[in-house]
Amino acid sequence: MRRSYLFIALTASTALALTGCGRDSGGSGGEAAPTTGAAVATEGVSGSLDVWAMGAEGEKLPDLVKEFTADHPDIKVNVTAVPWDSAHDKFVNSITAGTTPDVAMVGTTWMGEFAGMDALDPTPGTIDTSKFFEGGHNTTVVDGTSYGVPWYVETRMVYYRTDVLNDAGVEEVPTDQDAFKDMAASLQDTKDVKWGISLQPGQTGSWQTVLPFAWSRGASIADDNGWTFDTPEMVKAVDYYGSFFADKIADPNPPQGQTEADFVSGKVPMFVSGPWMRTIVEDFAKQNKGDDSFAERYDVAPIPSADGAESSSFIGGSNLAVFKNTESRDAAWTLVDWLTQPDTQVKWFELTTDLPSVQSAWEDPKLSSDEKLAKFGTALQTAQAPPSFSTWEQVAEAFDGEIEKVAKQGLSGADAMEATQSQAESIGTGQ
Asked: N or C, which end of the chain has less CB nearby within 10 Å?
């Protein structure tokens, strides 16, 4: 699930129908220091834990947990691998039936929903949450209370062909949005280049590409009073995004699954994606072109900014949460704390390539010596996520639909965000 189609699992499941009333429905929380739960014991802890994890994490976690149980022989851990496509419903059914696991990997966009169902145990004050990337920690905060910790993280950056940019006389990727667009357009004058950049033209998960451009020009989609899609800042950001399609710099109907092929061929020398795409493009070049040195011909750059704002991308990944029904609370949080120790995070990275949520883990040479990877670490310092409203997935679906009209039908940012705001207010925040 993770890698090139991570956005599907994060947004495809349907959130429970929760009511609210648009901008009068309460705040998103997290502005002040989050409320924490009762402390946990750390000595002489015992218990039996049922742990759920999805995808590759569910398959590989048992290997890592062997080290934990060796150090904590009185804690027994059973890991259940859960398919991503059935995970959301499995969680909801278990919450309803009172049969939740003790500990689980929880998608960041599910936190508001599950906390709203009163299923999650607040993060104990004995867990040091300051060690995490701020954006990652904020995904655990619901209505002012933290319910878990970020386990691993990822963010989006601009991938670009250094050789193609050099042929176009471009020495570096502009950090200003207007200059960035001009540069993307200029690449189309270079041999073999068809489109200056590949951008997702709406459809499921497109918000993960659009919002970084919006955040990077100071826009916001929510405040203490609810949704704010129709602000001038958001309208301007959506118009900017749509201009790439209107000006024929980006393809409004890109062939599915063609990103790596077009990038390697040089047909499309730029796109926006996460760290997993490094392996995908390099493997494609090696397997289809016999090119073992493709890594030398591309690099990554931060999302360009505008209007005095700093670059800010989307922070994704998954959290670790403890469910309230656990009969082994101390043991559960002991495991969670162990999984988020810097050395454990580095070991997990080696097993899975999941990027550490703990900032100090990035000082390890296994990460810091990789120049491209280190750039993702820098971008994570300012990355953010949508508000933890329990209805976010429903609102995201509405937003994605309007962005598709912007990209494919030329809908204005004002009309698109007015429609999104109307739908968002109808859905509410669930607070």
From this structure: N
